[in-house]
Amino acid sequence: MSWLRQPSVLPGFGLTLGFTVFFLSGLVLLPLAALIFKTTAMTWHEFVQTVLDERAIASYRLSFGAALIAATVNAVFGFIVAWTLVRYDFPGRRLVDALIDLPFALPTAVSGIALAAVFAPTGWLGIRLQEMAGVQVAYTWLGVVVALILIGLPFVVRSVQPALVEAQRDLEEAAETLGAGPFYVFRRIIFPAVLPALVTGFTMAFARGIGEYGSVVFISGNLPLKTEITPLLIVIKLEQFDYNGAAALGFVMLLASFAMLLTINLVQGWSRRRHVGAGN
Amino acid sequence: MAGAAPRVEPRKHVSLGRRAARVILIGIAIAFLALLLFAPLGAVLAQAFAQGWQVYLQSFDDPDTHAAIKLTLLTAAIVVPVNTIFGISAAWAIAKFEFKGKSLLITLIDLPFAISPVIAGLVFVMLFGAHGWFGPALQDRDIQIIFAVPGIVLATLFVTFPYVARELIPLMQQQGSEEEEAAITLGAGAWVTFLRVTLPKIRWGLLYGIILCNARAMGEFGAVSVVSGHIRGLTTTMPLQVEILYNEYNFVAAFAVASLLAMLAIVTLVIKTFVEWRADRRTG
Fold first, then answer.
1. How many domains does one find in chain B?
2. Dihedral sign, Cα of residue B148, residue B151, residue B153, residue B156
3. 3-state class of B45 per DSSP?
4. Is position B6 within any domain?
């Protein structure tokens, strides 16, 4: 296999690479191919009619719009959370730090029913929001946003945290000594250093939000054209035995995933180049 | 493993403005997390124990719930070892050798993370469902995969596919392979080299990958929901049982089962924190 790899004394290349590629192909690539071929079996007209249907468009608007709003909220508050965890010491800091990963570890169905319980019109936060601000969160598009904020938060915090740890404190102190105010230091020194990590976290949270299902369906109300996310529409089409319709919408979401994956790779490449540039 | 932030050095001269900013920012962060993370977690326990211990314990006295717990344990017992073997194998190939197409392979391994769980279930319906590629062939032989346990296992394998590999690859790349090369050159066999040289170096990262894989395997909802068919007592895992009970307005039972899953999440986080603490001590 000398055409494929550089020489090494270590054993097991053929075995491990062979098993990896075989398992990857069988479990991931073959099923994805089945979805893509199912879609190509449809006529163009049928495909366009399914994916540009009024109900489908409304679901894209909700899924992408809510994911965008949630990722933006997370970029702001996730940054503040990461900042307080890195720069300040306060009682319970380590506990809070450990709990940031809760949305990764908690099954989505559990976050879903828990959020519904808290934000429902009868829930303890839902009642107060209703009385004080006249806002209903559960069973509206706001509920979708709240669920996606929960799901996306760790992506932003865990991206920004290491960047803040590595940020050069001596630069900040030098700027302060030279008379720069705190906002100037933040805008000109801290923010540019952390920006690539923040964009990476934002993009990952957005990508996750588009496809999220479990934590959303309990709090969203699931009304067609109003509070129905795209993954739910796929599930509904499957339940109605509309396999072509489900495949077509699945294909659209798969394209969106590939586009997001490409964006994340580009952002990370950009971030690495900036990082290297800053070090020189 | 970005979790453990290093200790913060106290600053000597702290102005009033800085102290105010500090209090306000910590306040905002804690309030945000309290509303979003701690309140829902508290709600699970509050709802589960809404009618006291007795009712909480009674809600597990249900054959369908027992079956769901068993199915979840069975699924994890199959999925976690398989994906652990895959993860070690992929990490060995990728971290120890230089070959063409390596970065493409890494991207493809990460693919299931980028795909919606519903799509993860859907692809198996397109493959093995009644109208899928292999549907008719399977029907002729009376083999059922979709709306049965094999489909649940496959969908869970798909969504948890990258966890172990993605923990081990950067770790093993960073460690290099000089020690393994020395062992092989001195005449150690492949297995002995792996077990005695590599495994001790990667065990904490491996443990971390395995517990994350396990948490996702036991908690997966979307992908499993698409392939399960929701047959009570037969193809419902714990998260699906939570959904069924919740939709039947049996809230105490729904949150009781959910509380078990929440405890699993807490245990996962505790182990994760411990592993990070170990890793910090070794490097620091």
1. 1
2. negative
3. helix
4. no
Domain with A87, as residue range(s), is: 43-279
pLDDT at B284 over 50: no
Cβ-Cβ pairs closer than 8 A, A with B, add up to 306
Domain tally, chain A: 1
Alpha-carbon distance B223 to B269, whole Å?
Answer: 23
Kindly state the average pLDDT of the residues B209-236.
94
| Residue A19 belongs to a domain | no
pTM exceeds 0.90: yes
Residue A8 lies in a domain: no
Find which of B37, B127, B133, B208 to mutate to test the A interface (most A CBs within 10 Å of its CB).
B37
pLDDT over threshold 70, residue A111:
yes
Q: Is residue A155 part of a domain?
A: yes
Q: For B94, which residue in chain A has the nearest alpha carbon?
A: A17
| Phi, psi (degrees; rounded to nearest 5) at B51 | -115, 25
Cα distance between residue B70 and residue B64, in whole Å: 10
Mutation target among A106, A156, A236 for the B interface, most CBs of B within 10 A: A106
DSSP bridge partners of B99: A5
Residue B70, domain member (yes or no)? yes
Contact B262 A110 (CB under 8 A): yes
Structural domain containing residue B116 = 16-283
Which domain CATH number covers B225?
Answer: 1.10.3720.10
In a domain, B9, yes or no: no
Examine residue A90 and state whether it is found in any structural domain, yes or no.
yes
Q: Is B10 inside any structural domain?
A: no
Q: What integer pLDDT is reported at residue B16 of this predicted model? A: 83
Largest CA distance in chain A: 72
Beta bridge partners of A5: B99
The length of chain B is 284
How many degrees, rounded to 5, is the angle at CA B49 between CA B48 and CA B51? 110
Question: Hey, is the C-beta of B273 within 8 angstroms of any chain A C-beta?
Answer: yes
- Of A241-255, B133-147, B218-232, B249-263, minimum mean pLDDT range: B133-147
**HEC profile of A168-226:** CHHHHHHHHHCCCCHHHHHHHHHHHHHHHHHHHHHHHHHHHHHHCCHHHHCCCCCCCCC
Do A9 and B181 make contact, defined as CB atoms within 8 angstroms?
yes
Domain CATH code at residue A54: 1.10.3720.10
B103 touching A, CB under 8 A? no
Predicted ipTM of the assembly: 0.91
